Amino acid sequence: MNETRDLPGLKLRLEAAFHLKSVLEGKPFAPIGPDRLAQSRDRALANRMVTIALRHHGQIDAVFKEVLAKGVPQRAGILEAVLRIAIAQLLWLDDIAAHSAIHLGVESARADKRAGRFDKLVNGVLRSVQRQSEQFQALDGDTLIPGWLAAQWAGTYGADAVARFAEILIQSPPLDLTLKSPDPDLIAVLGGQPVLGETVRLAERDAAVADLAGFAEGKWWVQDVSAALPARLLNAGAGEAILDLCAAPGGKTAQLASAGARVTALDISADRMARVRANLDRLELNAEIVVADALDYAPGPVFDAVLLDAPCSATGTFRRHPEVLLHRNAQGIAERVALQRKMLAHATALLKPGGRLIYCVCSLERGEGEDQLAWVQSSLPELEPSAIAASELDGWDTPLTPQGAVRLTPAMALPNGVGGALDGFFIARFIRKPV
Asked: Where in the numbering of this chain does the SAM-dependent MTase RsmB/NOP-type domain appear (predicted)?
């Protein structure tokens, strides 16, 4: 066993397999860290294997139907994860030799007590995939998105948009940064392209995030262009008291603080808020950090504005977090819709008369977006919609809805000819009516 574990490349594949197994069981994907794999090259490859297996999950399901007549054996340890990673290598990782993928796939199974008894099955399956690689690489993209979601999205956005979503799913996303202040020289050094507001996009990078220019000096933070819009549309003023509800990972808090607002950042997770504090320290920005359940936080109507980035299905983030497509279901979305309504009502009670409320979700579901806007109008008479104008988005009118909200989808073309996709988001703004 020790000789097997010493095989070059085996340890990182085992880490990838155990990591993928946990995601398949319902845990969110978090990159494999240096505590598990010391070498940065090993971590990069292991994380790449996991993410590619997740991006192509639906296509690998179709491969299983062809090469495993009885399906994947149950109670077999890491077997399914080992197969998915090896198949991902054979079909979509051209820089890894097929014989290496097969050999290390078999040895990965053998290194696990429950999976090891299926080593011959692994060898046979992978050799079959190798022989039929051209056929499997040509699988239709309609297997990539779960059928119930594809049907739902087709009804909302059209079949062409869903086909584009599938294309985006299997692409590596660019890196978006929000600059603390305008800095053309830094953009040039980073090799970035301005997108909207203070968002800069790096189509490619050859260094870890922490090694990029300006990181150590606190000149920017990582934030998707879509996620940067809600705080911008709150129009925070210097000295205003603003509550950032469900604040982690903290990008919006940083935006509000950099505008000079007195920010209270609240989230239920102490660990996540510790990371928010560390990021604010790096950026030399200040905010009051509160760890609490948002629905239990009741200081009264003391805020000039509230930004509610409500807990949601996060289906709009599938290009960066492909596992959300595996973990979501209709019941879970309905439960989130009910929670969002409670939070909207509670956030309203925290606003001063005349105060502003931004409601946003990184979701593509109408129930969490457009339908919530209609619910507010019928159920919270103290709020009135405040239409968002194209001028607030540098003239970009594509995402504006007839109701004056913002609907972003991954298939939407960005302004300024910037390439690449963006997260799906819904943003609505309200004013609490004066007493």
From this structure: 137-433
Q: Is 249 assigned to a binding site?
A: yes
- Which 8-state DSSP code applies to residue 400? B
CATH number of domain containing 76: 1.10.940.10
Query: HSE on the CB side for 395, CA within 13 Å?
Result: 3
Which 8-state DSSP code applies to residue 399?
T
312 annotated active-site:
no
Q: How many domains does the chain have?
A: 2
Q: Is 269 contained in some domain?
A: yes
Nearest in space to 104 (alpha carbons), one of 33, 4, 172, 202: 4
User: What is the rounded CA–CA span in Å between residue 195 and residue 140?
Assistant: 32
Residue 267 marked as a ligand binder: yes
Residue 194 within any structural domain of the chain = no
> Is 61 a known ligand-binding residue?
no
Which of 344, 351, 362, 414 is the catalytic position? 362
Each residue's pLDDT tens digit, 56-99: 999 999 999 999 999 999 999 999 999 999 999 999 998 889 99
Q: Is the pTM of this model over 0.70?
A: yes
Q: Residue 257: phi, psi to the nearest 5? A: -65, -40
Q: Which domain holds residue 124?
A: 2-139
Pull the structure tokens for residue 20: 């993928």
At 24 the three-state DSSP class reads: helix
Helix (H) or strand (E) holding 431: strand 425-432
The token pair that represents 123 in the structure block: 């060898």
Residue 195: inside a domain: no
